[in-house]
Write a structure and sequence with these properties.
The complex is a heterodimer of chains A (110) and B (116). By secondary structure, chain A is an all-beta fold. Chain A contains no helices and nine strands. Chain A is 0% helix and 47% strand. Chain A is globular, with a radius of gyration of 13 Å. The termini of chain B are far apart. Chain B is built from no helices and 13 strands. Classes of the chains: A mainly beta (110), B mainly beta (116). Chains A and B meet through strand 4 of A and strand 5, strand 9, strand 11 and strand 12 of B.
Amino acid sequence: DAKTTQPTSMDCAEGRAANLPCNHSTISGNEYVYWYRQIHSQGPQYIIHGLKNNETNEMASLIITEDRKSSTLILPHATLRDTAVYYCIVRVRRDDKIIFGKGTRLHILP
Amino acid sequence: DTAVSQTPKYLVTQMGNDKSIKCEQNLGHDTMYWYKQDSKKFLKIMFSYNNKELIINETVPNRFSPKSPDKAHLNLHINSLELGDSAVYFCASSQDLGAGVYNEQFFGPGTRLTVL
């Protein structure tokens, strides 16, 4: 079973920052937080991951709370192409399985 | 382009037939996976192979047999297809960074299998 809880769906206006929350209250010390997304009819796409520090790459930023029980994925300037299902996954890097939950369906509104 | 590719993209077949889905990655990764995404959109891992050796088999019926001729290919053969096998099948690959540490997974575009 997935170890994370995410809202079922969210809306965001185009050009605004999209903030996707994820709860992972049972996360253990060696587990990373990963984010993937799946655009309609495509394979999942890796976005970002982190352990305890905030992370940023060309796609997004990941903010992890100090107690590591929750995190937020930030897409700084959402575009229509960011419409997708976003999956927050908790995973030990040594464990090569990815257990996908239901994810958050993000709608970017023009 | 460097990527994970799958063929065919669509596969429609009758119950009881045997079919194969092919997967190739040119990323130089040594670990490959098959996932199944059912009609409810749940994505579940089926198999993973590391350097042509099976390392995960997630209670998949033995009608499903993965075959890895080399570390760039992981094909999925399905015998005696059933209605419940209808789904989208995704191949993925990742790099073993050593000591059991794996990098992020790269997914193929998927194969939509419809069993009639």
